[in-house]
Task: structure prediction
Amino acid sequence: MERRVTLDERGRLLIPAEIRRKLPSNILILRWLGDRLELIPLEDPRKLVGRYPLKGGLEEIEERQRW
Result:
């Protein structure tokens, strides 16, 4: 799918609703690739809860975060 879009007066890009509805979340990665932009949708982080078990106890995790 390809659409022509414009930036508003504040430099914001409007993503058409038909495309937005297909995105898994409202979080996107924006990449500058020399002569073009690339938007990469990310999965909604709330859907990741419980998918990846944590190794170690809470104290160990908190210790790692202090580093």
